[in-house]
Amino acid sequence: MQTYCDFDGTIAKIDVTDAVLERFAAPEWRDVEAAWEAGDITARQCMSAQIALIQAPLDEIDSFLDTVEIDPGFRSFVGWCAENAIPLSVVSDGVDRFIHRVLSNHGLGHLKIIANRLCIEEAPAGFQYRLEAPFSQSACLAQSGVCKCSVVTSGTTRIYVGDGRSDYCVSPQADLLFAKHKLATYCTLNAIPFVPYTTFSDVRAEMAARLTDPGVAIAAE
């Protein structure tokens, strides 16, 4: 059994990458976003172009990241998974540096993070941000920086918790899917079984019930 959790809007209460871009990137990041939404560029191309538009030093970004709140039930959910020997990974099409900073602030810096990699390079202005995508796949239907389908592999009971567009392609692969917001709407429209949730306290309660009650299967029906 393996649990995978999206980050932006799932663990974090907000989309952290969008919030960083809103505060620290040149206004053109919105034009890039519009091009992606129109289907003119891929999700990976969108993220790479947007990250390159960030114009703030890292300490200012870190100060903002230190204010980000996470789901109030996530820490106890992590502890419950550890107690029950259920591996947990954070799988995000966001930025690894941002995710690690936020999780570390909440005592969760030990979690495995699979995400796009932030690189900082010297430039005439003193610094420049660049995004690498070590978890991308050329055959990925979503064309994201992180191919979640290749991360959430077969061979074990796969539990997935998500909320948005980057979770669409992987949602049919989960044996037990927890969904809210855009992901829940997508699953409803495409007849993909899921369990609705509001916080990780709901996820924990549902998983605990399925593990302890022999009459309830862990896999989604």
Tell me briefly what this model is.
With 221 residues, the chain is α/β, with parallel strands linked by helices. It has helices spanning 16-24, 29-37, 43-51, 58-65, 74-83, 96-105, 148-151, 181-189, 200-212, and strands at residues 2-5, 88-95, 112-121, 128-132, 158-162, 176-179, 195-196.
Note down, in words, how this protein is organized.
The structure is a single chain. With 221 residues, this protein is of the alpha/beta class. It has one domain (2-212): Rossmann fold. 37% of the residues lie in helices and 17% in strands. It has nine helices and seven strands; from the N terminus they run βαααααβαββαββαβα. The protein has a seven-stranded mixed beta sheet with strand order 4-3-2-1-5-6-7, with helices on both faces. β3 (112-121) and β4 form a beta hairpin. α5 (74-83) runs parallel beside α9. The relative contact order is 0.16. The mean pLDDT is 92.
